[in-house]
Amino acid sequence: MLSSYVGENKEFERQYLAGELELEFNPQGTLAERIRAGGAGIPGFYTKTGVGTLVADGKEHKSFGGETYIMETGLTADLSIIKAWKGDAEGNLIFNATTRNFNSIMATAGKITVVEVDELVPVGSLDPNFIHTPGIYVQRIIEATCEKRIEQLTVRERA
Fold first, then answer.
1. b/e burial code for range 19-41 (CB count within 10 A of at least 16 → b)
2. Are residues 67 and 85 in the same domain?
């Protein structure tokens, strides 16, 4: 698994500790750029992020202007599973708030992209100025039919 954060998933924790899966941590911005690069057909790029840390172990180092950078590779996927706020039958997508951070770029990096939308709207009803991902990157789209749940509710006490 390539990740910047693994959360509090007990099954993931069990599999990792049992040696059933491997984990590669990436700084979050580096992970996002690796996905973006892969979706754009860029096989690799250099970044200063991670130089001098465990992240840089085993990676190519190169100097530019007296500064050391490490080579990171672009990431692609056979299947991208995306969640969007709104979409139309052509696959044009609008994301809500921070869901735009990874979903939009991951849609471009998948050979096949499947999207679940909260609201499926008629083709032509989305303002083209607000579409975050064009339908050319989407092969399948379905409308969500289940209840949205909060993973972990955190509130503060009233003063």
1. eeeeeebbeeebbbbbbbbbbee
2. no
Tell me: do 82 and 69 sit in the same domain.
Answer: no
The amino acid sitting at 45 is F
Give the residue among 124, 101, 116, 113 at the shortest CA–CA distance from 76: 113
Residues 69 and 83 in one domain: no
Range(s) of the domain holding residue 97: 77-143
Q: Cβ neighbours of residue 29 under 8 Å, at least 6 residues apart?
A: 49
How distant, in Å, are the alpha carbons of 45, 70, 100, 104 from that of 86?
33, 38, 12, 13
**Rounded Cα gap, residues 104 and 67, in angstroms:** 32
Asked whether the CA dihedral 42, 114, 93, 24 is positive or negative, the reply is negative
Assess whether pLDDT exceeds 80 at residue 59: yes
* Cβ neighbours for 110, distance < 8 A, ≥ 6 positions apart: 76, 77, 78, 79, 80, 137
The predicted structure's pLDDT at residue 79: 97
Q: What global pTM score does this model have?
A: 0.84
Short-list 93, 69, 68, CA closest to 80: 93
Average pLDDT over residues 27-52: 96
Rounded Cα distance, 121 and 131, in Å: 13
